[in-house]
Write a structure and sequence with these properties.
5-stranded parallel sheet, binds adenosine monophosphate, single chain
């Protein structure tokens, strides 16, 4: 069985690492010569929109998936479908997640609470959005935003006009600022056969829009139930196949959907060591029509992202129980270059160790 993956980043690399024990082979498509998946699997280099490469990939593989959602829906539809290969997750879910306005409309249609928002395409629409949604807020590009890119916090009307200029001539969305108590995400898989498997909730801490820390299992059973209910609606709506993640703000015990990702997710990296089956393996099982694996936690996990550069390995590996994942990327400010995971017997021990690690890896990042 060969899985074609559009995008050869760290998510693709971890998919391949999870797939080899199952006897699955991989072919990646990525424009970057140094794509992280290239260290562990063959990569064809070319544009994500290249018609010939997409057609070739679809001809070579049983199934096509993606590790990055800012790829062209049109190119996938036109050149990769109609072949033997199935495309999973469904292109409709990818299209909805690519545009923050479609995503908000979807949440509303499915009865999933989300932030108040307005689409902004002109100064007059911006003025109306500020009046109707109120201040403070966030002005975000509708498309292509990730890791805090393409979004600015708005405190005053002047801020909003400056941000409108700075974000450029692209469709925007203005949404209310949520003074959240914490952020959580839920990750689940749905297989070709309609079977589902849902992981325990992850508690996430971001800094400058980038995920820094995830702890799991997280939060009371009522949050888990609410998040799983919202996730199930999305899975059902798309007759989804693969792993889906939905991120929420939590305010006064209420979950407010922020966004969804139709792929394996950074807040699920802890499942590699912290769960009976990782999100990567379950994504593969789901898209290949295999039975899904157990999502039972093996302890209390913490995942810390390594941003910018990977610290000396000796230093990290000297910490008992620490698992290091180095994506093999060149160092660059603000770039996710690796992560490390701890799995402990108790939440208290996990938190103590995570605090100690954060002091050196991400000073200033705190959690309660
Ligand atoms: P996003 O790209 O929308 O996931 O935003 C990245 C991070 O920025 C979120 O995980 C939050 O920490 C923060 N953020 C984004 N939108 C809002 C909002 N409306 N209110 C408060 N924080 C936000």
């Amino acid at each position: 069985m060969t899985v074609g993956v559009v995008g050869g980043g760290q998510l693709g690399r971890m998919l391949a690492l999870a797939g080899y024990p199952l006897g699955v082979d991989f072919l990646f498509l990525d424009p970057a010569r140094e794509a992280p998946a290239g260290r562990v699997a063959p990569v064809v280099h070319g544009a994500f929109t290249d018609p010939q490469l997409l057609e070739w990939l679809a001809g070579e593989c049983e199934v096509i998936t993606f590790d990055w959602e800012n790829i062209s829906v049109e190119a996938l539809r036109e050149h990769a479908s109609g072949h033997e290969a199935r495309i999973c997750p469904p292109i409709a879910a990818l299209a909805a997640a690519q545009d923050r306005v479609s995503e908000k409309r979807l949440f509303e249609r499915l009865g999933i609470p989300t932030t108040r928002w307005r689409a902004v395409g002109s100064v007059s629409q911006l003025e109306r959005a500020l009046t109707e949604v109120g201040l403070p807020g966030m002005l975000k590009t509708r498309r292509m935003g990730y890791d805090g890119k393409g979004q600015l916090r708005i405190r005053t009307r002047e801020d909003a006009h400056r941000a409108f200029e700075a974000l450029g001539d692209v469709p925007l969305i203005y949404e209310e600022w949520v003074p959240f108590d914490c952020e959580v995400s839920i990750i689940g898989a749905r297989s070709v056969r309609g079977e589902t498997a849902v992981y325990p909730l992850s508690g996430n801490v971001h800094a400058d829009g980038i995920l820094r820390l995830t702890r799991a299992p997280f939060g009371p059973a009522s949050w888990q139930r609410a998040a799983a209910r919202h996730l199930a609606r999305c899975l059902q709506h798309f007759r989804y196949v693969g792993v889906l993640a939905v991120e929420f703000f939590v305010r006064n015990g209420r979950l407010i959907a922020n966004e969804m990702a139709p792929r394996v997710h950074n807040s699920g990296h802890w499942t590699i060591e912290g769960s009976a089956t990782s999100q990567f393996e379950n994504h593969l099982r789901a898209i290949l029509g295999l039975p899904l694996g157990s999502t039972r936690s093996l302890g209390h996990s913490a995942m810390i992202n390594l941003i910018g550069e990977v610290p000396p390995r000796e230093q990290l590996l000297a910490i008992e129980g620490l698992h290091l994942h180095d994506y093999g990327k060149q160092p660059r400010t603000g770039r996710k270059v690796g992560h490390c995971t701890l799995v402990e017997d108790t939440a208290a021990k996990r938190d103590r160790l995570a605090r100690r690690l954060l002091k050196t890896l991400a000073p200033g990042v705190r959690f309660s």
